[in-house]
Each structure stands twice: as C-alpha cells, then as structure tokens.
Amino acid sequence: MSVSPALQHHFDDMQQQSQAAGLGMWLFLATEIMFFGGLFAGYTVYRWRFPAAFADASGHLDVRLGAVNTAVLILSSLTMALAVRAAQRGRRRGLLLFLIVTMALGSVFLGIKASEYEHKLEEGLLPGPGFVYPGPQAGAAELFFGFYFTMTGIHALHMVIGIGVLAILLVPARRGAYSGSYFAPIELAGLYWHFVDIIWIFLFPLLYLLGQGVH
Amino acid sequence: MSGAGGGDRQRGRYEGEVAREHYLNAAYGIRTWLLTTDHKRIALLYLISITLFFFLGGLFAVLIRLELLTPPGDLVQSETYNRLFTMHGLIMIFFFLVPSIPAVFGNFLLPLMIGARDLAFPRLNLASWYVFTVGGLFTLGAVVGGGVDTGWTFYTPYSSTYANSAVILTALGVFITGFSSIMTGINFIVTVHKMRAPGLTWFRLPLFVWAQYATSLIIVLGTPVLAISITLVAVERLFRIGIFDPALGGDPILFQHLFWFYSHPAVYIMVLPAMGVMSEVIACFARKRVFGYAFVAASSLAIAVLGFLVWGHHMFVSGQSLYAGMIFSVLSMLVAIPSAVKVFNWTATLYGGSISLATPMLYALGFIGLFTMGGLTGLFLATLAVDVHVHDTYFVVAHFHYIMVGGAVMGYLAAMHFWWPKMTGRLYPELWGKVSAVILFVGFNLTFFPQFVLGYLGMPRRYHFYPPEFQVLNVLSTAGASILGLGYLIPMVYLIWSLRYGQRAGPDPWRAKGLEWTVPSPPPVHNFEATPRVTEEAYDYAAVLPPAPLPEEGR
Q1: Domain span at residue B351?
Q2: In CATH, what number is assigned to the domain containing residue B289?
Q3: Structural domain tally of chain A?
Q4: Is residue B183 within 8 angstroms of chain A, CB to CB?
C-alpha cells in the first residue's frame, strides 16, 4: 500500500485523517451556528417587541439588490460544489476555473453590499449620533439598522475570510495536489462556503422581505 | 529515603533510564518549544501560562481579603476595589479555571489514554496556546492600563454606557481567549471520536476522557454565544446602538440571558474535568473499578446537557418573569441528580476498597466533601424564595468558591500530583504533598465557611466596607486565606524542587491502570512504539497488585 504524502504522522491512514478533518469542520460550523444564533435571538426579541417599526425600517432596504445578491450567492454555491467535484476527479484546470469563478461571485456580492452600505450611509441610516429617520419610532428603527449592519457586517466578514481561504487553496490546486484520494481541503472550504451562503438565506427574508407589503 | 519498596524504581535509574529519549530531551532550545506540535509540550506551555495567571489572580484576592480585614474602607476605595474583584474574577475564570484541567492534563493525557500518537489537530492545538496568550496579553494590557470595574459579568448598561475603564480591551481579551477554548474543544471531540486505539470502545474509555468529552461539548456550543454577546457590547459601546441600553430602546436583561447562556455552562466547563480526575484517582487508590461506571460516564453528559437549561437562576431578581423563574428553579435542581450520581458512586467505590491515602487521594477526598457542600448550597440558591434573601450576598460567593476552588482547584491539584510523575519522570516528596493537602483543606474551609454565615446574615458582595458586627467572621476568612495561600505556595516549591531532586518515578509508580501508565515516564515523543490493543475494561484493578508502597512507608 502506498502512503500518501499528505498523510500526517499521527494518523494511521488517509481515511482516518479525512474523517477527522471532516468532523472537525462540522464542529466548527456548529460553533458558527451558535455564534450567529445569539444574533438571531437578539433580532427575534426586538422584532417581537417592535413589529411595526421593524417592518417599516425594513422597507428602507433595497429588495432588488438583496435579491440579486441572493442569486449571486446561490450561483457561487453551485460553482463551489463543481470545484469540489473537479478536485475529486483530479481535473486541475476545472478546479482552478471553478475556484476563481466562486471567488469572483463572492467579490460581486461584497461589491453590491458595499454600494448598499454607502447608500444607507448617505441616507443617514447608520445608527449612532448622525442617525436620521423619517418615520415614527425612530429608536426602534435605529435598533433594526443596528442589527442590519451587525448581522450583514459579520456575514460579509465571513465572506472575506472565505475568499481568502479559496485564494490560499489556489496554490496547491495549481500544483495539482488534489485528486480522488486527497481533496479534503477543497471539500472543507466548500462546507464553509455553503454555510456562509445559508446564513445569508436566513438574513435576506429577515432583513429585506420583512417590509414588503408595508409600503 | 527509599527502602525495599523503591527497589524497582532505583534500578530504573541505572538501566538505560538516563539515556532514553523522551519528549523533554528529544530537542532543546526555545524554538523547539514555541514551534512544537507535540501535545505533551503544549500542555507544559499551558501549565506555565496558567500558573502565572493563577498567582496574578491570587494577588488580587489577597488585596481583597486585606481590605476586608477591617470594617471601614481604609486600604482601597470603592473605585479600586471594584477593579480588584473584577480582575480577580476575570483572570481566575477565563485564564485559569476554564483552561486549567483540559488544556494542561487533557492535552497531555487524552492521546496517551486512548492510545493515540497525538491529538487530531496538532497545529490547531499549538495555535490555541498562541490565541490564549494573545487574549491574555490584551487582558494584562487592560490591567496595566487602569483595570476594569464592571465585575467579571460585564453587565449592561454598566459595561456598555457607564463604566470608565478598559472595558473594550478586556472584552477583546476574553473574546480572543474564547477561541482558544473552542479550538481545544473541537480537537478533543474529534480525537475521542476518531483516534481511539483498536479495542478501546466507548464504554472502555477512562472516565477522565468522558469528562473531557462532555466538557468539550459545552465549550463548543457555549463559547460562541459569549463571543457574540461580547461583540454586541462592543458594538453598543463603539457605535451607540442601543441593543442593551433601555434609553435607546434596548433591553439590559437580554444581555444577562446571552451572557449566562454561556457563563452558567462555563461552571461545568470548570468542574466536569475535575470530576473526571476524581474517578481516576479514587479508582486507583481504592484499588477498585469505579462503581456504576456507565452511570458516572452518562452523568457527565447529563450535566453537560442540563447545564444549558438553567442559566435563568442567575436572574431571579433581575426582572425576568416569575414563571420563567419557577421553571429555571426546577431545572436547576435537576442538575443535582447527575452530580449526586457521581458523588454517591465515588463513595460506593471507596466502600470495601483497599484505600491508601496518598496525596492525590487526599485531594480527592477533600473534593468530595467540598463539592458536596458547594452543590447542596447550590440547591438553596436554586430555590426561588431563598435566593431572593441571599442573592448577591457572601452566601453566593461562598457557594461558588466551594465549587470552583473546593471542586475545580482541588481536582486540578489532585491531577497535578497524580500525573506529575508521568509528566516529569520524577516523584514529588510525598510527606510535603500530604502536609500541604491538609493545609489547603483547612485554609480553604476557614476562608470560605465564614462567608456562608456572613451572607446569610446579610453582608452583600462587592463592597469594600461593612458594618462592624461582621468583623469577626471577616477576620477569620482573611486568616484562612493566608493559610490557603501557604497551601498553594508549598506545592509550587516542592514540585519545582522535584524536577531535579525527586526520585525517578518509573512508568507506573501508583500501579495504576490505564494506557498512560504503560509507557515510560516521561513518555516518548510519539507516545507508543506500536499502537496498543485494548482487551479489558477501564479500572480492571482486581487483577493487579495493591498500590506501590509510598516512599516514607516503604522502609
């Protein structure tokens, strides 16, 4: 039996190593769920307390841009899955292509997000001393935008980290390091990428769609 | 010193023991330590770091007890006093108790106990120590930069709006350190699942491993919630978003919910590993299999699960609804069941055993008594009406010190003495060990028992002055604290002394069961020459000899 160069000294075989890495990644994602869970809990409490103000404030978000970003992220999940598939099949060029497309889509998402932030700043919707809100219940609306910026901001930070991880993986991918017998790093990066997408799938309706039908 | 009983250990000194390569002498130089991925060396890095934090946290305790020697506030004023008890709590909890047994003994022993060459993610393990160190430096920076005065609980709106101290810096330190425990927790869970030696089934695992596993589950599920709570406080403090500030529409109680969702389970992060140590030590020095092994193992998981459902008992007087209070009261009492399962099963293990009172066993027996006291007073506090009376008094302070110091620190010291020969290859002086265990027990009770009485009589916590009628009990407590301090310093001295002058231990000085005792002391770099095969239950003491005679009994 040939020993893979990727096998670390303290594991018996590649199967044990990749199973350990996979379990570790799932546990990490569990910690991420608990981390975002605290945010979702806080959001839930205040939406329960100020339903009308939250719906009204939500109407100030741009649903079209949010929807486009949702589509971009779902598409990036597809290309990420295809990258894993390419790694598994040992297709070096396909892997590189799909990784780069995934990173590009992630960057498009962040670009759209940045323009949305800029717009909100211009309207004076960033909570703090300069906060201006045209409707009633400005205090509760400020809370809504506090959650909006915190939740989407932490999500965007996760996207940046995801793009960084994929960029690092480009190097071994170019070298042709991944094949059917060893592709765990790509697979785990994929798990993380999908997780960050799923967070957005929850953020989009909670933040953007909430105000539909109010205005 | 050594007579007939030390004979086999004496021989070990001359036959190849000196030249053998092990994890300590395999490589020299500071780089080989700072860049090591060996779980045993990382354990020692943690041991050094948390020992420093322990004595720093202890220094704050000394100042607190000195101030409380007299009724008026003469040594420090309230501003300083607030900082003293805050820094004491923060450092002892986040930088000593939470990492203590897992990061030192869990790190060192988990792979050895399950027949693995290392933890599943050795580099992550090293990273966790660096993250811990960075978090520690932030917190130390806050100490130097004027300290923090919010109490270790960071209650809002005090921490978010009113406190004029290094809140952000300290919070950042705690936030960063949290990731170090998450890394350790993930590493332990994966290691227990995927790295066990052939034949080592779940119900053959040492109970120490079960306890580490349950602890890791709490760490992994709880710590991220602390991280987000601290993030939200920082967001509120920096951007003036009123998440917790009632003036801005926020709710301060929400912070308490989020905070205690982690910080109550954190109590079990601190005490569960000590319970794992108890099972190992008691089985060894009673020469018996732990009574009701499966129940003791399952009770660790039960404590981990129930621990997540009881946080509201910290908020009985915070304005949470009465019905929530009643439910949390009942759920809190349920934790007593798995805790009592452990205490009764250890007691049953002692029954009919051939008990020898070596130092680790003295600490273990002390643990059982002190933990029982701490646990029972916990039931008083879980009772709604009683809690309203003693809430925020010294009764609470005494209660959690019986669990945290009487439980967790006693367990830590039991582990220290039990596995010291394995880690260093040297025996500590047994007589000094026993003497300091007794000093510690006496000093502890003298320090904290009067505080139960003080609290019941109505002395509130977190004040630097008190009415003169409380002075006698406070003087007793301070006197006890000085004895307790002595009890910590003596082991510090003789353990360091033993590194050079201690008797050589040999692989198994206690004639204990468990894979860690089958390898030489100190263990080789890769732990096992060949992966061991496990064919028996844990604690199969019936088949082995009585414990090795202790040095001073062996003549």
Answers
A1: 32-540
A2: 1.20.210.10
A3: 1
A4: no
